[in-house]
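## retry 2 of 3
previous attempt timed out at serialization; input unchanged, resubmitting
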Amino acid sequence: MTLSKFRERINVFLHPHRDRILSTMKAVNVLVSLTAFACLVAYYGYPLESDTAQRLIGVIKVSFGFYVVHFLVRWFFDYHPLQFLRRSAFEASLMGLLVVEGISDVLTGKVFLGRALDPLGIESVEDWTVWMVQAYFLVVVLMELSERARTLPRFRFHPATLFISSFLFLILAGTGLLMLPEMTVNPEGMPFFDALFTSTSATCVTGLMIEDAETFFTHKGHVVLMVLIKLGGLNIIAFGSLLALLARFGVGVRQHDVIEDFVNRGSILGSRGTLGRVILWSIGIEVLGAIALFLLWPGGLFETTGDRLFNSAFLSISAFNNAGISLFTGGLADPRVSSAWLVHWAVTLLVFFGALGMVAIFDLFSREALRDRMKNPWRQIGFPTKIALYYSLGLVAFGAIAYLMLESGAGGTLDGMGWTGRITTSFFQSATRTSGFNTVNIGAIGTPMLFLFIILMFIGASSSSTGGGIKTSTFAVVFADLIGTIRGLQHPHLFRRTIGKTLRSRAWGILMFFILFNLVGTFALTLTEPHLLAEDRGFLNLFFEQVSALGTVGLSTGITADISPVGRGILIASMIIGRVGILTVAFAFARSVVSRNYKYPEGHTMVG
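## retry succeeded, writing output
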């Protein structure tokens, strides 16, 4: 009897129990994943006695065994086993890795990857493997729960609500992790409010820090920060890409299934979906950035290859997601890397592409778009891509020239540098207006350039990107409308495209929202931080901090650690609102499906 026939007979015999068995296994999978993840948090977050640690490791190993069994059961009960393996190629590879690691652990007492990478000086690979596997299955569990929730009408969340809730969940989860004793050098753990501020800053990819990331956090804390940056940035890219794509054709009843499919896709790693493309492209760019940084670091900077690799990955993820957090005291102005010009250029490019937006990147570099333009030379890049690309390049050039002119004099931050350093620093600081990285002391920058930075941070990055601000698209539409008003045009245009009334209204609404909240936030800071107002440029420093927080930039003149708890609360609110508020407002405008076809009599008044 062939294996196929034998399997068919067993399936026929077990078919009446198939659904019950699979449902039971799925329910147990939820319990196992949550239990294993809780054990991981306890194992890595607290100093434990050896017996307790071994018991926790035992639970984690059992969970791995269950994952393999669960996969085999699903494969066995599938009516098309070969198609199942093709559909689940990633998970099948993961199961193979678990089997190999399990056999290696039983026979040698050490996992295979650990023995293979030890000669390279890459330590704790077992920890990374464990976390990655458990994180994957936790995501699978969450996706299964969300799929079940979709069958119940009362749990059908709107994507905007889901977007905000996911950020709040990430922030609170990150806060809890950062408070664990093993995450910082403080034996008692990080205080709640400090952890909340840091988690918000990392998740909202802002980069404002009240503690030195290099010295205050342990390696485990650095990993948590990196994961928060990645998940927060990915969430922003995904939702921002969705908005940019929907903006091309509007949102109506027919498109609501597109939205829900994008947000609640069952296979989040599916390469055919838009969300899958966003994930794969962002990871691909970060990997290329990490490789470039790994090769460009100055010699002798790191003790081991593992440290060099981790720092490369951390900085690449932080740069592409415009987070502005680095593992050097004083940022990239640290003496160890302050003259590493090639590293600065690599970070500049990562920040620029992160701020450009995934929709523009797809339009510029995807295989389909390139092939289409080669086949049809008359085809041009899309209208949103033109805005993102040309305005981003223009703002970078403007900021770099201004910085070079204003900071080259005696006492300026460029004083004493050669032309290579001056040009690199000027372009770096201009491009990273959206990210918060610095290669000079921001507090030492002159008042004129500091004011220009406020304007550049206010404008920010492009739509569907990890950067903040009002976005280049908003600035472009407002500017085009303003020029059209001055010239008396009835139909303002940009790049030979007419700007519609609805789009102009959205742009002006976002601009006014941003101006209003910055004014309110700055006023609140003047009430809570009178001790900082007494210092030189006190008001300007507070205004700079507020715009940086609302724009999720992360640049600071060095006053973040001196701000009171109430003031930090204001900055936390600014970071969250700056991260989700403008996108949510834009989405709220975009999702109107009912035409209100009426108007009141026109009112006339003098303007200006």
